[in-house]
Amino acid sequence: MSWELLGPDQMIKKVEKSDFIKTEMVIPNELIGFFGNEGERLSIIYQNREYPSYLETEGGNTKLKWSKVLIRKLGEAFPEHESWFDGSCDETKIPKLEITKVNDVFVVNMSTLNGQSDNENTETVAVAVKNEQPTETALNELLKKWITGYPNYYPRDFRFSFKDIINEDIPKVIENFAAIKAGNYQVQGFAGDTQWAEIPWVKVIDRRAQNSAETGLYLAYILAMDSRKLYLAIVYEAAGVGVRTLSEKAAEYRKKLETGKYRTDHKEVLLANATLVSGIVCYREYTEIEMPGDLALAEEFEDFRKMYQNCLASDQVEEEIGHSDEVAEVLTNQDQLLLDQERETITPELDDQEPPEEMVEIEFEAESFPATNDQDNNEEGIPVVDLVMNEQWAANKNSDCDDEQPNHDHGQTDDGVTAKEMSADETEALSKQTTEEQDENNSIEETNENRQSETLTKVPMKNDYLPTYLQLIQAKMGNKGYYYSPELIKSYYLSIKSKPLVMIKGRIGSGKTSFPQLFAEAIGASTENGRFKRVLVGKHWNDETPLWGHLDSRGHFIPGPITLTLKTAKENPDKPYFLLLDEMDQSPMADYLRRLLAGINGHSEAFLTREDFGADVAAFREYGDLNYPDNLYIIATINEGTGSYPIDPRIIDSGNTIRMPEVEIAVFPNYGSPSGESEWQNSSFKIHNQAKGLPEILEKLMYLLNDVQKLLSDFDQPMGYRGKNEILAFGINSGVEGLFTEKEVIDLAIQQRIIPALESDEKTEIALYKALACFLLADNLKDKLLKEQSLSRFCHLYEKLLKAEVIPCPRSGSVILKKLNRLLKSNV
């Protein structure tokens, strides 16, 4: 037996040839608990570097799957066992793993079966569950291998694992640098798609910079054309822009930097792409011989990161200047907030750990309550001064409105509008203010003459970053005459990964039907190959037979479109299938979606029973065992407007609801002739195994979700387990692929899951919508907005803040503002 358990916390594993060939080890059932639970992600630390490992069950066996790179390195660490690796299998030289478990950490020593080992050939491998990280780096070794190895592999088969050095190993080392760990950067390596790249690179992009997919500033390691040099460079790149323009832009950045010892003569850089060279701001050149040690490499990377952030900060200053007038209007004298002045506080000099976000600093005068010296810290550790505003900001303008906090138990009045109309007595009671309260406010206003300032963080509405595989989808859709924003593509993609039901709402002609069809075609699912099917929901369907099938006059079962799709999807489990229910709102959904909804929500029973087939035994044999497969995705379109049936709350709770944005009337980008992988496997839409190793992402999401849940619970509208779990699934997939930040995930969750559910409940209070609109806003500013009894005033001020880009959840906030404005108009 190759496994020998020495005690509850120690075992020996005789290493077999198959362990290295298959890069996995089959674990006996009685030893599974020693390592953890099935699906667990283990981080293996070897020579101070991390390698992922997983416990997975395949074919009835539980396997410990090792990184191919780690297996190769273990082989390189034992040159004296060369005969064993060649197949000679000298018993005295067969390696063994001595595994000792200490709490959640596994220490693995490797030696030979005869016990002979020394310091030169015995290595320690620490297997740390979850978030253990290496304490040092091995960047020097990896960069050297990149320089020396790439020209050798370039003419060979692309499947060689050498590309892991560029695509995985170097990015992992960079991700463990102190300034990168917080998650504000996207680190991506590129060795090629289906063949070796002419210019391989490892890019570092600040997620907060909001670059588009093809335009923006980034930091990168780039291999020279002759593969003898490697450059660390700050690069400005813009699609469709010439060499001269790029050179001028790079020169502008250089004027703002103290480049010190680093070079700026970009014309000396040897790359096959002259356009790329022209956008280089400054760079550091490395060779195999002149390669600094790991510590020096890390210090030089940090120098470049700070220069990169200074360039971004200078761009932010210019952008902020353009927004100054808008921000000044947010709380003007007209709004009774007595705003004195506005100034910007973008500081090029950076914190040692994290670069500053875009900030807008606003000064306020006489306050209605004592100033506070407490400070909050945002996620990046940048101080935000408590906002203090005048208590009279609404009373001076609207003397008939009080400043009482809305009563959650009794609903809220806003210009006479509530989710339920309130009685005249209740309205009158809420609109009065006692003499004592007025006197107290006047007294406070007279005594508080000090000034306080509040720094508001800019929160952009858009996140235009797209990874290469989604850029390809956008290009294929664009070349057919349709432009869809990066945010829409990412949100739809993640929604599919999170739950196989996505509802798309929009006006007639907004593209809600063409969008899912073009997306499916871009990944290889079309009507021609049967993997995309559109079903137009008929008027007033009163049962499920139009979808599932029916018995004809002779007793033969005629299968419906869902039945046929289920059968073909079951026969091809590796391919994704899409079923579009167009205009789902044309019939009552409870009448025709009951069975399908059960399958979507996890029920594994067969959809059709013996009675559905009558006497047609052959049809029962063919379709009687169909249940919901994990490669079928249901897309439903919903019209916005009158003449539609309301969406059943059970359906809203079963998937994400996406609103189609307004059609952009502009010149479409020239994507050229897109080329790349278009036949996606179904595994592309499953939660990545790496998600098991993202405790920081999960922790941040859970904290934010907990705050949302508390807010909803205050209004007796809490989320259920299904909604919470599916929001987490959306966030995990986003975190694995670096598509949205945790706060953006929560913003999208409110927009796509929570608001649609609230809209389906007529009892939802307007106060709840207002509280969601102010979620994550600075406490003092939030309190003042929520105390504003006039709905029109709330909407006016909130719109100003949205335009100034200082609302933390701008996507959901924009949707809520539109809803509140519609309520105002309907009650005028």
TrEMBL record:
It comes from the Bacteria. Gene3D superfamilies: 3.30.920.90, P-loop containing nucleotide triphosphate hydrolases. Residues 397-416, 421-459 are annotated as: Disordered. Residues 162-310 form the Type IV methyl-directed restriction enzyme EcoKMcrB subunit DNA-binding domain. Residues 436-447 have a biased composition (Acidic residues). Transmembrane segments: none annotated. This is Type IV methyl-directed restriction enzyme EcoKMcrB subunit DNA-binding domain-containing protein. It comes from Acetobacterium woodii (strain ATCC 29683 / DSM 1030 / JCM 2381 / KCTC 1655 / WB1).
